[in-house]
Amino acid sequence: MILVSSCLAGHKVRYDASDCYNNSIAQLLQQQLAIPVCPELLGGFSTPREPAEIVGGNGDDVLNGRAKVYDASGNDVTDLYITGAEEALKKAKELSASIVILKENSPSCGSGKIYDGSFSGRKVEGTGVTAALFKQNGIKVLSEKNLDEINHLLQSN
Asked: What is the pTM for the complete model shown?
């Protein structure tokens, strides 16, 4: 089983109540190879909510207590991001998921790029909190940008 970011499945769960529908992800769901999950909702956020960014590092740094996640108003929302990551990991373990496909750039799900914490729109190399926790637990993390690997998953089933 594959876990996928709910927003990629067309669920309107992003901070601005939008989605990032992805046809390849929809195909995985139609073939019953994937289950959608939103770490931010699992952490206790509602939709819509203020955008948030990791300040002072990346998801690994947040998990190790060296960085924080703040929303655009300056509220520390770190604990909600950590809770969401832990709940998503529990779900992955329950389903024996060995692969997750997460939304790039997100402070939860970014697997290669995240926003730099300045709320200026600048992206940097790094992982979100959930992506980091999955990787620490040996789960392969892809983003919707890994279309070749996603298409390979579709073709092999």
From this structure: 0.94
